[in-house]
Amino acid sequence: MQDISLEQAISVLLEHTKKIEAVEEVPLLEALGCILAEDAVATFDNPPFDRSPLDGYAFAASGTKGAQKEVPASFRIIGEECAGDFFAQEVPEGAAVRLMTGAAIPKGCDCVVRQEDVTVQDDCILVPYELHHHENYCFAGEDVRKGTLAVKRGTELTAAHLGVLASLGLGMVKVRRRPRIAIASTGDELVLPGEPLRPGKIYNSNLYVLAGRLRELGFEPEVLGILPDDAAKAASFIAGWREKVDLFLTTGGVSVGKKDIMHEVVRCIGTRLFWRVCIKPGAPVIAYTAGDMLGIALSGNPFASYATFELLTRPVLAALAGRSDVAYRAAEGFLADAFPKPSYGRRFIRAHYADGVFSIPAQHDSGSLFSAAGCNALIDIPAGTEPLVAGTRVKGVLL
Ligand SMILES: Nc1nc2c(c(=O)[nH]1)N[C@H]1C(S)=C(S)[C@@H](COP(=O)(O)OP(=O)(O)OC[C@H]3O[C@@H](n4cnc5c(N)ncnc54)[C@H](O)[C@@H]3O)O[C@H]1N2
Ligand code: MOO
Asked: What family does this chain come from, according to its entry (predicted)?
């Protein structure tokens, strides 16, 4: 089988990716980043009542006619209302109620004066200027009127949308079912951080990069830990997830070594879509289907798995979730540093991109992850490119 191009690989993956149309109801707090599945219409005015924007006193503005510093208007204080209280009595002319910010404006009042502007004398306030009808007055429905389409079906919910939906009183919302994604690492050499490291073993970093990236992109993966380098065991484990997840990501075991079990796993549980993509790093990636589940077996080298997650898996996630923000954006700019190696095949190197300039860290081997921290881009170097000098114009993708 000949290596396929990155674009061909993405298009094969997308052919086997079905946008999730199913709907689920989730608590509003869990709906961030989800696609709203039905219009959210305000069923009441918000705020639900006329309210005070100030800590002060409410009364009928007509009572301040002709008021000035030397001849203030006087109102008798007949009560007090904090936000959350409800002053049910009608306020007669010449009377005032002390109100805190957010408290409902009682019947009979049509304005509010700031607390600092009045003098309290016994049980009265002295108001030193005229107020007009609806001065310092917030109306019911000022934020959202009853019947307004507050958030449209299909909207990708941001924090502000969650706030709007909360103000409409929606504790649960219908959203497009979120993609179910499982991640696992293969490799008998792997140990989870926190465990002691014995000779020949290394800590599993890939699982943390993938889990972290998925969460950064707004997904909540099932993090399944480490699978042994035993094809039968790994196959039966992964097969057990066929009905439960849309996408199964693994790292490791995809090259040609004795313990590169993912070839056998795919033979046992599904159908291979491709093996090997013409890119460096991460060329030996395998894509497969197992029932309705799509599998992507990324290579184990830490930066290879990171880069191919970005290049191959993000387009799948964007298509599954119907979320355009998950797809990466292209960028162009100048190299701040030289890249000393020739690129016989198409190569992606990590970089930090800002203001049209890509800076490349010194270390960029696929087995090394250290310098990826702080990078936010991959530079796309075409096959057959000589070493690059600083100042070269290059293309890339933003992570
Ligand atoms: N004879 C050949 N050997 C290799 C070839 C080849 O074409 N012919 N390709 C090389 C390339 S390129 C890559 S990339 C790797 C891919 O190997 P695998 O995907 O099978 O990955 P492993 O062998 O399992 O691991 C590679 C490397 O990464 C370390 N690793 C694995 N998993 C993790 C993890 N979760 N966290 C941290 N580090 C991990 C592993 O210990 C190895 O050092 O194959 C080359 N070989
Ligand atoms: O594909 Mo591999 O270049 O060693 O990461």
From this structure: Belongs to the MoeA family.
Please give the pLDDT value at position 154.
93
Q: Is 292 left (phi over 0), alpha (psi -120 to 50) or beta?
A: alpha
Asked if residue 69 has pLDDT above 90, the reply is yes
What CATH code would you report for 24-46+147-176? 3.90.105.10
User: Does the CB atom of residue 187 touch ligand 1 within 6 A?
Assistant: yes
Which superfamily does CATH assign the domain made up of 329-398 to? Answer: MoeA, C-terminal, domain IV (2.40.340.10)
CA of 290 to the centre of ligand 1 (A): 23
* Residue 1: per-residue pLDDT: 61
Q: What is the pLDDT of residues 266-324, one digit of tens each?
A: 999 999 999 999 999 999 999 999 999 999 999 999 999 999 999 999 999 999 998 88
To test the ligand 1 pocket, which listed residue (1, 227, 255, 279) has its Cβ within 8 A of the most ligand atoms? 255
ipTM for this model: 0.97
Determine the Cα–Cα distance for residues 115 and 241; give it in Å rounded to an integer.
Answer: 64
User: Does residue 339 come out as left (phi exceeding 0), alpha (psi in the -120 to 50 range) or beta?
Assistant: beta
Q: Which ligand is nearest to the CA of 343?
A: 2
Q: Is any atom of ligand 1 closer than 6 Å to the C-beta of 368?
A: no
DSSP string covering 330-358: EEEEEESS-B-S-BSS-EEEEEEEETTEE
Ligand 2 residue neighbourhood (C-beta within 6 Å): 280-283, 299, 301, 304, 366
Note the pLDDT tens digit of each residue in 190-200.
Answer: 999 999 999 99
> What is the per-residue DSSP string for 144-177?
B-TT-EEE-TTPBP-HHHHHHHHHTT-SEEEEEP
Does CATH number 3.40.980.10 belong to domain 6-20+178-326? yes
